[in-house]
């Protein structure tokens, strides 16, 4: 894969070639203004060209270009506002400015790298989703560091019941020995520890190879504000006081572990200047993001629906409309309530910042934006947005999509299949006799069954599949590229694996449970989301009637029962 330095060199070369054409266009506009100084359309064209230079110069190492472009843009804006009256001498000054720009570009001696260090290139290719017959059941490994045996047992039980493998240490020395063997996916440290400072241990972990990857949670008997601040400074991801709310800590741990399973975030950049657009896209892609560029705001809605971005970057000055108007359009749709919107603009005045906030923007970055600032603004906004989505869209017990979020994604799949072909299966699973399980083993026993089924689904299904808990004991799966035979085979395998699982509670040494499945294949030409779901429920009811612990595929002429 090409390095960022090589990519930047190619972009800079193209930028220098395009600069000659841009300067020629500016001179042509100036000649027109010399004979017709009140032509507002020519002034707007001139302002846009200066705007592009102001925003792109420093990106490619030409800070003087950005400064001169900003001067030209400000002059044009003052003409459009009527603050000044253009004189022939002003045109000559602008031509002198263009001459200076031409001299800078002809030298081509800008900085060899942008304003700050570029992100490390991601050399690993994206891997395809595993097929269903591949082993994807590796459990996340959690290292628990605690000298109290009772605390260690409670934390171990919590992790084990939620599909995590546990390693343990009683002190810092043992922990360092464990860490030297292999880096875990997460650490839970209870402080104080008997042989040293746990905060310093976290700092050592973060300094180790791959030490930035694990999720680290500190559990403390110390409840002071400064202790929490110190947790943040040392590099821990969360700080919990004793007595610990285990459900809250589990939610946080699962959220942190899920970050590794996420696809690269999608960023939509709305930018009509090809030089700025190319730099933003290449820079963010080198940091591991998926980036699409919308150069014409008329196509913005199409990009939003097809690309479904996790973050939007908006230029303010766009042809035909402003970035503020696009931001307001985004905020009118409640589906985008958590979508971060960042403005990238040459307008740094207070009134522009106020307008950004009023339009629903989350940040206002003034061009030329230092790449390090752009990268950190993007990453921090994405992280907060992802956390809010987790709170809104995930089921608290199983960490799967809740009913509303699952149906929203189901609607998107139906709309997508109308544009592209291919089978899509909907599988609805229902735990058999779940009411009896709650009556015999209590609600904790019922919760264990639901968690066990959710963990089985996460292990057996691809990351690209959509999984949700759509009611108390009902789960649903949307799996693309599966026909009826393949979906039935998958459902039967899940039913068989689930029936073989033993569930243990404090009052019962072990018990078993089964579930039934209804399957429906989407016919995008004839079926809506509601009809598709009803078909799967019809097949599920037939599975219940047929004796449970079986899978049934919907067929208007008569469904077929499949026993795992």
Summary?
The chain is an alpha/beta fold. The protein has 18 helices and 18 strands.
Please identify the top-level CATH class of the largest domain. Answer: Alpha Beta
Our count of helices gives 18
Which fold name fills CATH's third level, the topology of the largest domain? Answer: Alpha-Beta Plaits
Radius of gyration: 29 Å
Total count of strands: 18
Largest sheet, strands/sense/barrel: 6 strands, mixed
- The CATH architecture of the largest domain comes to 2-Layer Sandwich
User: What is the helical fraction, as a range of percent?
Assistant: 40-55%
CATH superfamily of the largest domain: Reverse transcriptase/Diguanylate cyclase domain
- Sheet/helix structural class: alpha/beta
Query: How far do the termini sit from each other?
Result: 45 Å
Counted up, domains total 4
Going across the biggest sheet, name each strand in turn.
14-15-13-16-17-18
In the predicted model, the low-confidence regions spanning at least 5 consecutive residues are 120-137
Which band does the percent of strand residues land in?
A: 15-25%
Mean pLDDT: 85
What is the approximate shape? globular
Detail the topology: elements first, then pairings:
Blueprint: H1 4-35, H2 40-56, H3 63-81, H4 88-107, E1 141-145, H5 149-161, E2 165-169, H6 172-181, E3 186-191, H7 198-207, E4 215-220, H8 225-234, E5 238-241, H9 246-258, E6 266-270, H10 274-286, E7 290-294, H11 300-307, E8 311-315, E9 317-318, E10 321-322, H12 323-331, E11 341-345, H13 350-358, E12 363-366, H14 371-393, H15 403-417, E13 424-431, H16 434-460, E14 466-471, E15 474-480, H17 484-499, E16 515-521, H18 529-545, E17 551-553, E18 560-562
Parallel strand pairs: 1-2, 1-3, 3-4, 4-5, 6-7, 6-8, 8-11, 11-12, 16-17
Antiparallel strand pairs: 9-10, 13-15, 13-16, 14-15, 17-18
